[in-house]
Amino acid sequence: MAKRTINSKLFGEAQKYFVGGVNSPVRAFNYVGGDPLIIKKGHGSKVYDYDGNKYIDYVLSWGSLILGHAFPEVVDAVKVAAGDGLSFGTTNIKEVELAKLIRKAIPFVEKIRFVNSGTEAMMGAVRLARGYTGRDKIVKFENAYHGHADYLLTKSGSGLATLGIPSSAGVPKDFAKHTIITPANNINAIETVFKRYGRKIAAVLVEPVGGNYGVLPPDIKFLKRLRTLTVEYGALLIFDEVITGFRFSFGTFAQNIGVTPDLIILGKIIGGGLPIGAYGGGIRVMDKLAPLGKVYQASTFSGNPVVMQAGITTLKVLASSRAKYKQLERFAEFLSSAIEKAARSRNIDLKVCRFGSMFSMKFEKNDNFKKFYKDILHVGVYFAPSEYEVNFLSFAHSKKDIENTVRAIKLVLHKIN
Ligand code: PMP
């Protein structure tokens, strides 16, 4: 592989304009050291830098690109949509089409509100839950990440975990005083919270499969208990499926386990690579939103026609290739066990945590991740630059990609000890 000299120069330029050279802290390489990858283009399962290097990509725009980069049908449809106007700020028929596809896949989403990011969706949903219940408190689990709203940045995963920021500066204590934080998957702890605050709790927020502190596999018993507890106390249950929506099947993880939350948060995959977020649920709750109800939430660009088109085409392709989800999982399973096997044979304590087509890697010795990361990037595999972020597979990843990745990993682990 060529050296990343042009990359370094470009990153130097970026640092002149952006704090740490990035527009989102998860993109920084603080955790692993070195310069972040500056990507020139992506096709299928690969991304390319400006030095002419090619990488097998397991970041996939943080889980958004389930079809891989620049999927031809999506790109073509987006071009046509763009030619008809970039933004109207009115209801457009593409919004209806995407909503229809989502409701067909997730029938309990009777009504939906499109916004521009997962953060925005969660902020809207929390306000709606508070408006609907007339209560203030919300429950969030340790190490979960639901976006960067003030009241959600304590003991969070994702970039805060990576950068060692236990809770963000700049958040007045008063703004977070209604957020109750409790350990994930601990039934006793959540029951105690409800015993103490039950009738004051507006909503419980949960990532049903944790994806922001490495992969945290679901605890179905726990999720079912959340449902019964919230019903018992009249609180809403909000499933944050920004990562998991359409990731394991054509729909949500909630449906796979037979739990119906009151509100669902979507993002990433439903935008086909363009900025999106959405929250939805039953009419009873959703109709409390303005203009019908008194809970206000607005946005200039929500339901943008080009974004909607990327989502529509992506979901249509996914709907017609449902069987491929199984293959995605098989590849992820093969890759995860090959990584662990390679590590074991070299006596390296590396654990791969996987659920479906998402996985994260954790070395016993933290320094090993840094060494591993630098070397694996150098041989053309782009993983998330933190043990807390998760990696994904896309429909574009081939058997050959997986085999090449395993070969690269063996080579790199060989150098670790
Ligand atoms: N919820 C979850 C579970 C997420 O993983 C993320 C971002 N990775 C968000 C919410 C926030 O989404 P966004 O970055 O689009 O604001």
Residues in helices, as a percent range: 40-55%
Q: Please state how the strands of the largest beta sheet are arranged side by side.
A: 4-10-9-8-7-5-6
Bound molecules: 4'-deoxy-4'-aminopyridoxal-5'-phosphate
Q: Average pLDDT value?
A: 96
Main sheet: strands, sense, barrel: 7 strands, mixed
Report the structural category.
alpha/beta
Description:
The chain has helices at residues 5-17, 60-63, 72-83, 93-105, 118-133, 159-162, 173-176, 187-197, 220-233, 253-257, 283-286, 305-319, 324-345, 366-378, 399-416; strands at 39-43, 46-49, 54-57, 111-115, 137-141, 179-182, 201-206, 236-240, 263-267, 277-281, 350-355, 358-363, 381-382, 391-392. With 417 residues, the protein is an alpha/beta fold. It folds into two domains: 72-319, 3-Layer(aba) Sandwich (Aspartate Aminotransferase, domain 2); 324-364 and 373-392, no CATH class. It has a seven-stranded mixed β-sheet with strand order 4-10-9-8-7-5-6, sandwiched between helices. It starts with a helix and ends with a helix. The mean pLDDT is 96. It binds 4'-deoxy-4'-aminopyridoxal-5'-phosphate. 4'-deoxy-4'-aminopyridoxal-5'-phosphate binds at residues 62, 117-119, 122, 145-147, 207, 211-212, 240, 242-243, 267, 277.
